[in-house]
Amino acid sequence: MSSQPYPAALHQSSTQSRTLISQNGQNTPTGGGTPNSGTGAPELDVRQQLLNYQKMFDQAAYPFINDASAYEKLSKIGQGTFGEVFKARCKSTGRMVALKKILMANEKEGFPITALREVKMLEQLKHPNIIDLIEVCSAKSSAPATKDRTTFYLVFSFCEHDLAGLLSNPKVRMSLLHIKTMIKHLITGLNKLHRSKILHRDMKAANVLISREGVLKLADFGLARPFVQRENSNVPRALYTNRVVTLWYRPPELLLGDRSYGTKIDVWGAGCIMAEMWTRQPIMQGDTEQRQLQLISALCGSINQEVWPNCVKMPLWNVMSSDTNTPLPQGKKRVLRSKLRHLMRLDGPDGRSQSDPYGKGKPNEHLPADFKDDDAMNLLESLLAIDPDKRPTADEAEDDIWFYKEPLPKANVQDLMDTIPTSQFEYTVGKGAHAGRGRHHNNQPRPNQAQRQSNAIPAGQYRDTIF
Predict the structure, then answer these.
(1) Does the annotation mark 202 as catalytic?
(2) What is the C-alpha to C-alpha distance for residues 354 and 348, in angstroms, rounded to an integer?
(3) Nearest-angstrom CA–CA distance, 213 and 223
(4) DSSP state at residue 235
(5) Spatial contact of 148 and 140, defined as CB atoms under 8 Å apart
(6) DSSP state for residue 456 in the 8-state scheme
(7) What domains lie within the chain, and their CATH numbers?
(8) Residue 382 contacts residue 258 (beta carbons within 8 Å)
(9) Which one of the listed residues 202, 220, 347, 373 is annotated catalytic?
(10) pLDDT of residue 107
(11) What is the pLDDT of residue 450?
(12) What digits encode the pLDDT tens for the residues 73-128?
């Protein structure tokens, strides 16, 4: 194999660098000299030098990655603080892909660290239930303000739906077999992540994709990061930011300021998604962290030392518990089982509501009349345990007895996908995080509700996708 392109590219870059830096007759002083050091050398124009460096990088070529012009953008299917996601077609093969634009406008320290993490992790996470990263490509910006700036795209295999968009469509009818299969896929993909020592940190229905073949895949690793598992309990645990996970899916330990969390924060998110498979909407929709804690207490019971011995060690426990309008009300009973018993439902192929997991209505097809799926509720109860130490690992949840009872999970839900003619995405149907963007007729303001002012978030910080 010839190595000619690589040295040529290096030679071109170094030559270009010397040319640009030496413009206007200004060169970097040698021998460690500084301006006004008495040597008579002209002062170093630092600003000009930085502009020359910026120009050099803007004009640089990237010979080892493809140009984004190889793909034809068809439509936008996602948007957030990370940037935009487009449905696109490869011009040479006709293959459908998803292009995720990496937001570079506010980056002052080079390529975003979150994008670097995402690329590195997805390269090692090759699994049927995790989205496949095909390549990274680049494109020159044509906008006047950012002319010649390079934009980078992550190219993913295209999935026809995300789970949030699918659940928001009342015409999509799911049987217990469909639900069990998708939850099995979800936990299997999460188990692969945790075995690879990676935290997802943004588990929610909108970040769960479903392919045309009916295979569920975890996606959006913009907040993911590797974690360190300490074998020695005497060694201090690693600290991470607690400003992660979309608010509706955020576990109580993060809401109370924990920074030494582990894989159980993802398990809580998986429990929220599992409940959402039946309720068809997020089960706890708080608009502030305090309100979210109140909703968790109302559904899962009061947070105290009886159910969670280490809760008093959380950084925000004293502040939260001593507040006159405390978001940690006491005396609340756990009503998750009774609430979900009435909300859970199964929809048959004919579109009519059939029995819930507890046999309340017409028996589900292929199931006995006295069918009661207590195992499903037991799994959900454990996933949504207040105490993170009492939640199962993804490995334990994958081996839960519920997945070994009839109806057994299938390899895919392609029969369900065949009944859905158009793609369903949270962004395009205007549900979930995008419900306040005027895309859906059900988005009506509450009576006498004051309009909230938008708080600007500094670039690079995490914004909750709650509107």
Answers:
(1) yes
(2) 6
(3) 27
(4) S
(5) yes
(6) P
(7) 68-158 (3.30.200.20), 162-437 (1.10.510.10)
(8) no
(9) 202
(10) 62
(11) 43
(12) 999 988 866 678 999 999 999 999 999 998 776 666 677 888 888 999 999 899 99
Q: How many CB atoms lie within 10 A of CB 113?
A: 12
**SS3 assignment, position 248:** helix
pTM (2 d.p.):
0.77
Does 100 carry a binding-site annotation? yes
Give the dihedral of Cα atoms 180, 388, 210, 424; nearest 10 deg: 100
SS3 123: helix
Give dist(CA 256, CA 262) in Å, integer. 15
Tokens of 116: 């670097």
DSSP string, 145-159: GGTT-EEEEEEEE--
Is the CB of residue 272 less than 8 Å from the CB of residue 282? yes
Contacts by 237-240, CB closer than 8 A, 24 or more apart: 240/199
Residue 282, CB half-sphere, CA atoms under 13 Å: how many?
27
pLDDT tens for each residue of 43-64? 557 777 777 776 776 666 666 7
CA distance 124 to 144: 38
**DSSP H helical segments within 99-152, as ranges?**
113-124
User: Comparing 282 with 366, which gets the higher pLDDT?
Assistant: 282
**99 exposed, middle or buried (CB, 10 Å; 0-12, 13-18, 19+)?**
buried
Q: Taking each helix axis as running N to C, give the angle between helix 336-343 and helix 289-300, from 0 to 180 degrees, rounded to the nearest 10.
A: 90
| Closest-CA residue to 267 (of 196, 340, 194) | 194
Q: Return the higher-pLDDT residue of 236 and 293.
A: 293
pLDDT at 432: 54
Q: Cα dihedral sign for 268, 84, 81, 157?
A: positive
* CB of 209 closer than 8 Å to CB of 159: yes
Residue 328's alpha-carbon distances to 201, 255, 291, 300, in angstroms, are: 24, 11, 10, 12
